[in-house]
């Protein structure tokens, strides 16, 4: 079964859930705020998706970080920041078991089979 990583208050995450529901695709929801983010889960994501694609530099969380935290971000620093602030992950993240899809735009899940 697929896992959709979300933040429940995120409009794009709601659209992704609606798209999965409309297609009748089974999935479980993992709320990054409520359910958290383990180091093992972050590594699972990063094995399939490059850090540059999952670090959300447009988020409110990023904008609220101290300037020194946003400077010279390499993979290790990004891991530390994401572990401390799971909302720095771009979302939604859909883990189908075969791949992880980052973000959602209309039609992104049309090729998925239930």
Summarize this entry quickly.
The chain is of the alpha+beta class and 114 residues long. Helix content is 40%, strand content 14%.
Shape: globular
- CATH homology-level superfamily: Glutaredoxin
Percent of residues in helices: 40-55%
- Uncertain segments are none
Q: Give the number of domains.
A: 1
Number of strands: 4
What is the succession of H and E elements?
EHEHHHHHEE
CATH architectural grouping: 3-Layer(aba) Sandwich
**Kindly, what is the distance between the CA atoms of the first and last residues, rounded to a whole number of angstroms?**
9 Å
Classification by helices and strands? alpha+beta
Task: Report the top-level CATH class.
Answer: Alpha Beta
Q: What can be said about the biggest beta sheet?
A: 4 strands, mixed
Rg, alpha carbons: 14 Å
Strand order of the largest sheet: 2-1-3-4
> What is the CATH topology descriptor?
Glutaredoxin
Q: What is the mean pLDDT?
A: 95
Count of helices?
6
Strand portion: 5-15%
Describe this structure in words.
The structure is a single chain. With 114 residues, the protein is α+β, with helices and mostly antiparallel strands. It has a single domain, classed as 3-Layer(aba) Sandwich (Glutaredoxin). 40% of the residues lie in helices and 14% in strands. It is built from six helices and four strands, in the order βαβαααααββ. A four-stranded mixed sheet has the order 2-1-3-4, with helices on one face. A hairpin with a 4-residue loop joins β3 and β4 (100-102). The longest helix has 13 residues, at 11-23. The radius of gyration is 14 Å and the shape is globular. The model has no long low-confidence stretch (mean pLDDT 95).
